[in-house]
Every structure is written in structure tokens, then in C-alpha cells.
């Protein structure tokens, strides 16, 4: 399931691939104006999964840190955006009310700050313990918000006012998706990405080369959390409703994990391909198989993990593209 951890990417080096990506972005941009609200909502959900997949893939696929608490940062971003745009509903001073776009950035920044605060504690854990620790963090944040009804709305949820409309928020989601993919590409192919991939290959070996594992884990954790928080904020401002039971639900984490596994972990295009496949499976099977859709999805995912561990993108790359994505040399020593 995990791509080559030392793989960089020449995703934007091929002009035909760049042209196809540009066409895809333009096609996405006209979706709200040429299709129904139902289709727009499905495509928006796909964009959310791409953003969550890209952010989680940076931490797990490139830095090798399997976190199960991504839903926590998604939920934090959603609630911060809700509080900043509709503060009086939570009893907060009206003076903190901010425009939507600033609220989106605020959601991402607060999520990143939480990751910065808890990261040194979380990274005292390794492997499965780190995964369980992040899952516990998400559960704790969800319980706190459920308990603090005056801030979260409790099980009734929190209704947001002052949105900019679904069409504009959809375009914001498209722009954010492009920005996250491009940012991840630049990070992965930079000295920073080299350090992340070095600790993925083995912390002991990386340390012997002069790489500080904690430093690069923290970079990956904070950047990934910022992206997840921004995604949550965009989701909140599109739906204009957040609820601790649904917005911080572990299902978001499971779906993100499935998207990345289906598409190809540790690859640039994997989360994009995985999100598209996941939406087709989820919506197509529900129409055809009804209540058995989830069971069939589970079986298909198991088959993918057994027979296509590099994901659909890895399968396509190997069969039809001849493994065009570059395989960079192993990390060189660097001062940390």
C-alpha cells in the first residue's frame, strides 16, 4: 500500500500531464454553474476527500507517521471558522467576527497551533502507539465539544451565518485543493521533503545521516494539520452547519485512509485518484446494491490491499505509464 518513500515526483514536468490537470481544474470550476445542486455537493465531497487525503498522505505516506486523529484537526478547523463567522451564537464577542476567507485561514492556523502544542507529546509515542494516541486525541476533543454545548451546540449542532454561497465556496474549495496539491509537490521535492522521506525510510539511519527525526516529524504534523483544519473550515462554510458528533466523527478518518489506500499511498496523484474511485464506489454501489453497498466496499478495499497494494494510481503507472514518476536518489546527509 505504501509507495516508494524515497520517491519524489515529476508530476509537473510533463506538459501533457500539466495540460490534463489544467483541463481538470477548469472542468471542476464550472460544475456549480452547469450541473445540479446534487452533483455539485457530490463533487464538493470529492474535493474534501482529496484535501484530507493529500494532507494525511504528507504525514503518513511521505513522513511515515500513521496518524488516526486527522478528524480532530478537521473538526477544529470547522469549529474555529464557525466561531469566527458567527461568534454571538457561542456567546463570544461580536468584535472577533471576521470575513469568511480570513475565518478559513484562522481554522487552519488554530489546527496547526494545536498540532504544534501536542506534537512533542504525541511523538514520544511510536508506531501503533502513536496511531492510538492521535485517535485518543480526536476522541477527547470530540467529547470536550459535546460537553461544552454553549460553544459547540452539543448534539444539536452549530448553525453558521454569513456564508458567501455554495457556488463561491465550491470555487474556494477548488482553489484550496489546487493549492494543497501544489504545496505538497513543492514540499516533497524540497530539502524539507527529503528530510521527511529520510525518517520514513528509518529514523535510525536518518539520524546517522544528520537528520533530526523530531524536527521533520513536527514539520509534517503541523503542515498536515493546517491543511486538515483549512479543509474543515471550508466544509463548515459550505454546509453552514457543524456538529461534534458528525464533524469530528472517526468516519472522516476512515474514509480518508480508504481514499489514500485506494489511490496509492506516498504518491502525488494517489489521493486524487482514490477520491474519485471512492465516490464512484460509494454512490454507484448505493444505487445498485442498497444496504449491501458498505459490505461490498469493504470487500473491494480488502481485494485492493491484497492484489493492488500500491493503489489504483500505482497500478495505472506500472501498466500504462511505465513508472514515469521519478524515483529520486536516497536522501543525502544534511545538517539538521
Structural summary, described in words:
This protein is mostly helical. The protein has a domain at 44-249. 71% of the residues lie in helices and 1% in strands. The chain has 16 helices and two strands. The protein has a two-stranded antiparallel sheet. Helix 5 packs antiparallel against helix 11. It is globular, with a radius of gyration of 20 Å. The two termini are 29 Å apart. Residues 1-7 and 324-336 have low confidence and may be disordered. It is a multi-pass membrane protein. One of its GO terms (cellular component) is plasma membrane. Its main location: membrane. Keywords: Cell membrane, Membrane, Plasmid, Transmembrane, Transmembrane helix. It is found in: Cell membrane.
Explain briefly what this protein structure is.
The chain is an all-alpha fold and 336 residues long. The protein is built from 16 helices and 2 strands.
Major beta sheet, specifics?
A: 2 strands, antiparallel
Radius of gyration: 20 Å
Order of helices and strands: HHHHHHHEHHHHEHHHHH
If strands are numbered along the chain, what order do they take across the biggest sheet? 1-2
Amino acid at each position: 500500500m505504501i509507495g516508494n518513500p524515497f520517491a519524489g515526483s515529476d508530476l509537473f514536468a510533463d506538459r501533457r500531464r500539466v495540460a490534463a490537470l489544467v483541463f481538470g481544474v477548469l472542468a471542476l470550476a464550472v460544475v456549480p454553474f452547469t450541473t445540479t445542486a446534487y452533483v455539485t455537493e457530490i463533487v464538493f465531497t470529492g474535493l474534501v476527500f482529496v484535501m484530507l487525503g493529500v494532507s494525511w498522505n504528507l504525514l503518513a505516506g511521505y513522513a511515515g507517521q500513521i496518524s488516526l486523529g486527522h478528524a480532530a484537526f478537521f473538526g477544529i478547523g470547522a469549529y474555529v471558522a464557525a466561531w469566527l463567522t458567527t461568534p454571538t451564537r457561542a456567546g463570544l464577542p461580536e468584535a472577533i467576527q471576521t470575513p469568511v476567507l480570513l475565518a478559513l485561514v484562522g481554522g487552519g492556523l488554530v489546527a496547526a497551533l494545536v498540532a504544534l502544542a501536542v506534537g512533542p507529546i504525541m511523538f514520544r509515542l511510536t508506531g501503533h502507539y502513536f496511531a492510538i494516541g492521535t485517535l485518543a486525541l480526536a476522541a477527547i476533543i470530540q467529547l470536550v465539544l459535546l460537553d461544552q454545548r454553549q460553544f459547540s451546540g452539543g448534539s444539536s449542532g452549530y448553525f453558521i451565518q454569513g456564508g458567501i454561497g455554495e457556488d463561491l465556496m465550491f470555487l474556494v474549495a477548488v482553489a484550496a485543493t489546487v493549492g494543497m496539491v501544489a504545496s505538497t509537490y513543492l514540499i516533497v521535492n524540497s530539502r524539507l521533503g527529503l528530510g521527511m522521506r529520510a525518517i520514513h525510510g528509518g529514523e535510525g539511519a536518518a539520524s546517522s545521516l544528520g537528520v533530526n527525526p523530531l524536527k521533520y516529524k513536527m514539520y509534517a504534523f503541523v503542515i498536515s494539520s493546517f491543511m486538515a483544519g483549512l479543509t474543515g473550515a471550508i466544509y463548515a462554510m459550505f454546509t453552514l452547519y457543524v456538529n461534534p458528533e458528525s464533524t469530528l466523527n472517526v468516519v472522516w478518518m476512515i474514509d480518508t485512509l480508504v481514499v489514500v489506500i485506494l489511490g496509492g499511498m506516498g504518491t502525488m496523484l494517489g489521493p486524487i485518484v482514490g477520491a474519485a474511485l471512492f465516490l464512484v464506489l460509494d454512490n454507484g454501489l448505493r444505487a445498485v446494491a442498497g444496504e449491501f453497498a458498505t459490505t461490498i466496499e469493504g470487500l473491494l478495499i480488502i481485494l485492493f490491499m491484497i492484489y493492488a497494494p500500491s493503489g489504483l494510481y500505482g497500478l495505472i503507472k506500472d501498466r500504462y505509464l511505465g513508472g514515469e514518476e521519478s524515483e529520486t536518489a536516497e536522501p543525502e546527509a544534511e545538517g539538521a
